[in-house]
Amino acid sequence: MAEKLYLYPLWLRLWHGINAILILCLIITGVSMQYSSPNFNLIRFDIAVSFHNIAGMILTANYLLFLIGNIVTPNGRYYKMTFKGLFDRLKKQFVYYTMGIFKHENPPFPVIKERKFNPLQQFTYVGAMYIMVPIVIITGWAYLYPELLLTKIMGGGGLKVNDFIHVIIGFFLSFFMFVHVYFCTIGATFVSNFKSMINGFHEPH
Amino acid sequence: MSAFKLDDKTRKEFKNAESNENCLKCHGQSKYSYDNPESGQVVFRRMYSEAIVNRDLFYESNHRQFKCTDCHAEDYDTFPHPGRLRMETPYACNDCHGDDPAYEKFKFMQIEEEFLASMHSTKHSEDFTCWMCHNPHTYKISARTEEKIKDIVAYDNAICLNCHGDINEYQLLTTKVNPNIIKKHDWLPNQALHFTSIRCIECHARTSDSLLVSHNIQPKSKAVKRCVECHSTNSILMASLYKFSVKENRSKTGFYNGVIMNESYVIGANRNFYLGILSMAMFAIVVAGIIIHASLRILKRKK
Questions:
Q1: CB contact at 8 A, B27 and B47
Q2: With an 8 Å Cβ cutoff, are A182 and B293 in contact?
Q3: Which residues contact B229 (CB under 8 A, 6 or more apart)?
Q4: Cα-atom radius of gyration of chain A, to the nearest Å?
Q5: Cβ separation of A38 and B275 shorter than 8 Å?
Q6: Residue B224 φ then ψ, to 5°
Q7: Kind and range of the H or E element at B41?
Q8: CA distance linking residue B21 with residue B27, whole number of Å
């Protein structure tokens, strides 16, 4: 068995833990608001709104921590995507996940010190962290100042466009989170990837 | 919104415009003049503000086809007007609309019942008439005709604020101090946005299934204060503010197309039906995937 790799420094684990709690809180309160009804609420509407707002604000601060961390530590390099040959690499990883893994083949892009993410992971993490999260944060803050959004956009109100973007991206992010958790179970053991997020060490297959 | 260009030429298209002009040449402005036979001079006088009728608003109103003397005494044709006319009792809505089958769809009798049960009527009895809110010279139905929710809201809220935002009007009926509307609604998040997007009656009137606009204004203790009453899939706004457009446009899927296409924005109430189904399906697939995967791994470990 290969050596354990220390891939997740303390600041990253803290950020990740806080992020996980906040995202869960945002999903639960967000779903509760979206499907609210006077007769039944998952969470009372005004409480859900307050928690959603507060969690969104903390998430913004936490996201800045993530950005700064990626600038000042070597962690940022894992997110630098090379576009040349990207499709082939994505395909290779996809084929591994759908077939190779069941035939106990070796992963095409094993985790090493220089490469924490496989191409599929890198692609989705960059999409989630550098595109979707900023959009959800910006549209979320825009909600807090609705009077700034009362412009007409394509025949509708600015609030509605903001609403659709926020809810749709929020939906994709929640979907990402479920898939993310699911894929974490494909570690050396069922729980090894969860352990990594506590002790910082990656446990290879 | 204005369907008419209210220049002199267009006004003449209304059938009584010419004869009404005899009245409006004085009552249509803030001052009037007459030849005083005693002094032989032309005298200018200010028009009593309550007696001014705004031509533009009158010719946009629902009563625009009427002759002034359809509702007021014929004796008003003479000037100076006989003094006893000051005591003239104005018509109430149902004097004309009550039994007229042409207006049956507006349910005036039911409106009267609701109004008589309302705070306005029970607190002030016969002092409070329809005219307190609906000026017969300017009133127009807005909920059925305006395309923009914001215009309906602005028009209808102006009716309430006419008294609740004007101490002089308010104290015609009561000696109480007019409450400061802004302060009273301090608790409301995004107050300005609520005031311009929602009609006062959404929270202060009992929703009525059979009427487009409820007239049963409730005491403040019964006003809607729970956010979720509006911000939900079963929003009360669907039964009031958006009632007409929803009724006209609702599709069989339950996707609130009529609402989605207008200017409304209410969390929950305007969720997308198809997106909801898609998200539920994706959620179910992911959860099933996790359960299957976990079970397989546990089974495999046991072997």
A1: yes
A2: yes
A3: A38, B235, B236
A4: 19
A5: no
A6: -70, 125
A7: strand B41-46
A8: 9
pLDDT averaged per 10 residues, chain A (length 205): 79 96 95 84 89 96 96 93 91 89 86 89 95 96 80 65 88 88 80 88 80
Q: Cβ contact (<8 Å) for A36 and B279? A: no
B254: helix, coil or strand?
coil
The answer to whether the Cβ–Cβ distance between B228 and A36 falls below 8 Å is yes
| Per-residue confidence (pLDDT) for residue B270, from 0 to 100 | 66
CA distance B147 to chain A (A): 12
**Which residues of B have a CB under 8 Å from any CB of A?**
189-190, 192-193, 226-229, 231-234, 236, 260-261, 263-265, 267-268, 270-272, 275, 279, 282-283, 286-287, 289-290, 293-294, 297-298, 301
Choose from A29, A32, A34, A54 for mutation: most chain B CBs within 10 A: A34
Structure tokens at B239: 């039964």
Two tokens, residue B145 = 């005709």
- Nearest by Cα to A79 from A87, A91, A71: A71
pLDDT at B292 over 90: no
Residue B28 CB neighbours (<10 A): 17
Option in A146, A157, A179 nearest B286 (CB) = A179
H-only helix segments in chain A: 10-34, 45-72, 86-98, 119-126, 133-144, 158-184, 192-199
Residue B123 tokens read as 């607190």
B58 near B27, Cβ under 8 Å? no
Closest alpha carbon to B160 in B127, B200, B193, B195: B200
Q: How far apart are the C-alpha atoms of B247 and B234, rounded to whole Å? A: 15
Question: For residues B96 and B89, is the Cβ–Cβ distance under 8 A?
Answer: no
Peptide bond just before B80 cis, omega within 30 deg? yes
